[in-house]
Every structure is written in C-alpha cells, then in structure tokens.
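Quarterly update from the structural biology core.
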Amino acid sequence: MSISQLARSLHESSTLRMNERAKIMRERGNALIHLGSGEPKSKVPFDAILNASSKLVSANVKYTEVDGIPSLKKAIVRYTEENYNKIVGPENIIVSNGAKQSLSILLQSILNEQEEVILLSPYWVSYPELVKIANGIPITVTPEDGGYHPRIQDIDMAVGRYTKAVIVNSPCNPSGLIFSRDFIAEIVNYCERKGIYLIMDDIYHKLIFDGKSLISCYDFAKDQSNNSKLIVVNGVSKLYGMTGFRIGWVIANTHIVEAMKIIQSHVTSCPSVVAQAAAAGALTGIQSGVESLRLTLENNRNVMITELKSFDGVKVTKPDGTFYCFPDFSAYNKNSAELSEFLLRKVMVVTVPGKEFGMDGHLRLSYCGTIKDIKEGIERIKWAIDPNSPNEIYIGDRKLVRDWL
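Predicted structure, tokenized:
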C-alpha cells in the first residue's frame, strides 16, 4: 500500500505505545507495574466537573469560536497575569485540543519547508515528529558536559541561517530538571537578538519541588511589542489531572494567533465546548488540588530516588519537578530500547527508552503512581539487572529465579 513520505518518516509515540501494551497485559491478568506513565492519578477538580456538567445539562453543546470560548480565554488571561506577571489580551490566546495540538498548529503556522527548530536533549518524544509534520527539520543540541542542562554556547553552535525556533521545556520531560534563571534570561535575550522564535513549553510549570520558584520568561523580555517572538504553551492536562479533556493553549502575538486560527479552523474547527467549560472551571476554581498533587509527587520522587540509589551502577540526578526521573542505566545496557523491552518481558515493568528522548542508555521512569508501585517496580528492575540483588523474587503469585546473570 502506498503511504506518504511524511507518514513513513514519523515514529509512533513511544509513551502511548507503551501505554497500549500495558493495558493489554493488564487485561490478560499480568502483574504489571507501569513506571512509564505521564498521567497523574489525581481526580479531576470538582469545579471542572461542575462546569462540564452544567454545559451538558443545558443541552446547548454546539460549535464554539475557533480560538476558544470567552470564559476560558478570560480565565487564561487571569491565570497568565497571576502566574507570569504578564498582562495579555484574549486576542493573544488560542485554545486547542491539548497542548500537543497547540504545538503542532503553532509549528505549522511559523515554519516554512526545511526551516530548523532547535531541540534541547533530552527532549519530549513528540517534538521531533511535530517539527517534521510542519515540514521543518529538528536539530538536536546535547550539552557538551554530558549533563541535562542546556548551555547557550551549545545552542549558538547549532543555530544557522535556517533556524526558525528554539523549544524550551522547563521543568523538563524527561529529566525533571528546572533550567536556571540565568539560562532562561540568556535564552530569551539570545532569541530576541537573533530574531528567532522562543517556544516555552510550560506544561509542568507549577509541579516543582524543594521550595523552588516559578521562573517567568516574560521577566526577561525586552520586546513587549506585538512583534515579539516569545511564545508560551500550556494546558490543563498535567496540573489538574485532566489528560482526557484535551485542552491546551498558546499565548503569542496576534499575527501568530490569527495564523493558527486559520489552520485550526480547517483541522478541528474548535475544541469541545464541554472540555473548554471544564478547563475554565479548573482554572477559576479552588486550586488546592494542584498543591496536593505537587506534594504527592515530591514525596513520590524522594521514594524513587532513594530506591534507585541502592543500585551500584545507576546514575541518577534528582528531579526538580514533573512526574519523571531519567536515570542512566548504561552501566547495565547502553541500548535503552533493548533494556526497556527486557524489563517488560522479564519482570513486567513498563519504562520508556531514553533513546526516544535523545539520550540512549537512560530510561524515563514515572513516579506519578503509587508508592507501592514505585518500590516494587524498582525492586523488580534491580532483581532483573543487578547481580548483587537476591536471586529469587515473587511477581504476583509466581516465584521467579534469575538465570541470566
């Protein structure tokens, strides 16, 4: 069968693929532990449910404005002022079907064929594919010091005449690292000087630990005009546990918003009015659920780091935020896809290969599940690969003996 060159060039989302495999294995009764999930266990805020229910009860569920309903855009205006100390108007906002679509439509709006987008390794798995869908070329920048924190000098070496944008995700999926205030100031200033777009993916921006503070990119922007190339992407999936509602948004100059509206009008018309109502309820309602989730994640992170430090060969950097840590398992196996598959097959633990994030030898492990799953999952991983661990283990009702080390 003939399919397009674009379709052949894209890779399936590894995180969604692992989720599907995990679901099938669970349905078969396997004692699976999922350490690959990017979905919090917290319940959807009550205010979101009330708003969605009210819209459904009205029986007036119709098309909305392409760029979002007024009540949601008003809530995003307030949210931006309160959390970023930045005043924007509704004309600076477009709401889409999740932050992933927000990024996709944004990239299609600013990229011409063969223009380049700088990605900072390790990066979210969908960034390269979203750039390709927009006919752009993803350019990966890996810190020369071998760490996770980007450096301006590394970015500068990768920027060329075809560079159109840089994507920055802080706190970062998969490393959990918060980029320093100095770096955010530098990258804002650098992109303004170079005249290239700076896209801040802030989807985890309030899920940060250890008393660290939010860093607003707007604090460092000198260009406050309607030609500013500073763009912020956010959504309700992570902070509010509303992954199934699929609501994200972009804050940008009006030229970009208008271009995005045209493309989005032909792709999906508009986001679901019920989901938009729910998102407005989450943003304007009681916010204690966000702090509760943040505290739970911080505690879960501490447990996972303690468990990982019991390995002799694992190198792990303590995450500053998000749901994830990104330990280096290359002392055991430099091929992360092979290791991830081995762990799923031998001990039924779902992980995500670091290769998908631009750094092989690592695994992305999620701590947004239960403490029990975190401890048992790491115990199984250790049993499978660490020769210093006990030779026997119980998985479910089965007693297994390690015979491959």
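Residues 5-43+288-393 form a domain with the Aspartate Aminotransferase, domain 1 fold (CATH 3.90.1150.10).
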